[in-house]
From TrEMBL:
Name of this protein: Quinol monooxygenase YgiN
Superkingdom field: Bacteria
Pfam families named among the record's database cross-references: ABM
PROSITE patterns, alphabetized: ABM (PS51725)
Keyword set, alphabetical order: Monooxygenase, Oxidoreductase
Originating species: Lactobacillus colini
Domain ABM residue range list: 3-94
GO molecular function: monooxygenase activity
Amino acid sequence: MSLTVNLYYTGKNGSAQKFAREMEESGLADKIRQEPGNEKYEYFQPLADPETILLIDSWADQAAIDAHHKTSMMQDLAKLRDKYDLHMRIERFVSDEVPDKDTKFLRK
């Protein structure tokens, strides 16, 4: 069972895109991807909202998320969020297997 957190970072004048770019270019995003239990850490741009960046962040379990939250990287993240004056909203999901009957709708 994986836990996935969708974090929506919203700012003004392209600040959310600049934040995501700095996360990638600084290596901070890669450090998070290397943490035990991290399964996915990817940024996306909603087409209808150019001032928002979506982070899809998946972890093996709650213990992995808790360990991540105790790292010094969280302080670095907070500084970058402040630097770009970002506001956030969150959605959280628990993974489930895709039933065979639903896979017929997938094009591979």
